[in-house]
Design goal:
mainly alpha
């Protein structure tokens, strides 16, 4: 989930940054080529000024949004969370693979490190279930990919979706036999 959020905020950061830079370059070039643009397009001076003014306002709002929302910082903090949990998973695996027996103390230390999430961002409640579904689908596709490494991911997703749709939807009453 943190990986998805990191990618999500990273894409927003890149989009806002490049959008702002591109619009700034266009506005700067229009300053130097205003007469040429007006002559060749036949746009009136007032319309040209309104268009460049609105573009400048949009550029300012994009920059303001990027500064206030800080998607790059959010992406970095979610990358930090991915790293935190990856290290914890690695440590658990290392202890399980080791020849020595796990002690209560080593389990306690791993738990403390894993649960020490004060510095980490939280998963937004409104996104949790959708991200959980995304994660479970990712795990299912990954398992299928292990068995069918030459099949395309799109094909695997389609096959899993069809299998899920063909399963009967049982209600609680159906499950209990009522």
């Amino acid at each position: 989930m943190h990986g998805w959020l990191s990618d999500h905020y990273g894409r927003w950061s890149v989009t806002l940054t490049f959008g702002s830079l591109l619009l700034a370059v266009v506005l700067l070039s229009l300053v130097f080529a205003a007469d040429f643009v007006q002559r060749t397009t036949g746009v009136s001076t007032a319309a040209f000024q309104w268009t460049t003014g609105i573009a400048a306002i949009i550029n300012f709002l994009i920059t303001l949004l990027n500064l206030a929302w800080q998607p790059a910082a959010k992406a970095a903090s979610h990358r930090q969370a991915v790293s935190h949990y990856t290290k914890a998973k690695y440590e658990v695996g290392r202890h399980l693979d080791a020849a020595d027996v796990l002690t209560a103390e080593s389990v306690r230390q791993i738990e403390e490190r894993y649960l020490d999430s004060r510095e980490l961002p939280k998963i937004p409640e409104r996104r949790f279930l959708k991200l959980k579904r995304w994660h479970l689908e990712k795990v299912a596709v990954s398992r299928e990919l292990d068995d069918n490494c030459h099949e395309s991911i799109r094909s695997i997703k389609s096959r899993l979706r069809q299998a899920r749709q063909s399963e009967p939807n049982l209600t609680e009453n159906d499950k209990s036999g009522d």
